[in-house]
Specification:
The chain has helices spanning 10-26, 28-37, 55-58, 87-98, 113-122, 134-138, 142-148, 159-175, 179-186; strands spanning 43-48, 66-71, 103-109, 191-197, 204-208, 213-216. By secondary structure, the protein is of the alpha/beta class. Strand 5 and strand 6 form a beta hairpin. The model has no long low-confidence stretch (mean pLDDT 94). The protein binds zinc ion.
């Protein structure tokens, strides 16, 4: 038996057993029902891996309501059917072509380590060269960085936040290049949303397409 695989730590076993004896036990029939009926989520959420982002809780969503894909900095890469492994594109394809979700939300957030590192990468400030995958992934931010840098490169408070919000617009635009999304949008079967969430204040902002700026909800 390999020595790098261990049984789950006791505190997690206990926490699971407590959930099973309470939440699960009280809703046993419902869990059985959704197991048999399968999932029918109306909403796909693309959020950051950040452990402080809890999409279901901030919308009071129930199990089965949100199809969630998480990646570093909640980015959608450009459409690139090159035969390589593309986790985000695969999740989007499954959500639209198989689950037929009606909404895709890109959920960005404040204090994002991914966006902050991406900012450093794009502005060629000191970044970790030990990362094989993260830096490559954060290259997706370059067009958004270029856009926010049109008015000068000088660092100012909120610039990382600007990049985070700008990247949401670019990710939404990248989504429209996927043929199956283009088709669903044309048939009015799908709509796209950009959201930005401030962790400390709990404030949520939505991208207003008329001004292409974020407004509080
Ligand atoms: Zn993040």
């Amino acid at each position: 038996m390999p020595n790098y695989i261990k049984i789950l730590p006791n505190y997690l076993i206990k926490r699971h057993q407590a959930w099973k004896a309470t939440v699960y036990e009280e809703n046993k029939n419902w869990y059985n029902k959704i197991a048999i009926e399968g999932q029918k989520p109306q909403v796909m959420v693309i959020s950051c891996c950040d452990s402080r982002i809890h999409a279901t809780s901030m919308f009071g969503a129930d199990i089965g309501e949100f199809f969630i894909h998480r990646n570093i900095a909640n980015l959608v890469p450009p459409y690139n059917p090159d035969g390589d492994h593309h986790g985000t594109s695969a999740a989007v394809e499954y959500a639209v072509k198989t689950l037929h979700v009606s909404h895709i939300i890109i959920l960005g957030h404040s204090h994002c380590g991914g966006i902050s590192n991406g900012y450093k990468l794009c502005s060629s400030e000191q970044i970790s060269h030990e990362s094989i995958f993260v830096n490559k992934w954060l290259n997706i931010l370059k067009p958004a960085y270029k856009n926010i840098s049109k008015n000068g490169n000088q660092f100012r408070e909120g610039r990382v936040e600007d990049l985070g919000k700008e990247s949401i617009k670019f990710s939404l635009n990248n989504l429209t290049d996927f043929p199956f999304i283009k088709s669903a949008l044309n048939k009015n079967e799908l709509v796209l949303h950009g959201l930005w969430y401030d962790i400390g204040s709990g404030t949520m902002e939505t991208l207003d397409p008329s001004s292409m700026s974020f407004v509080k909800i």
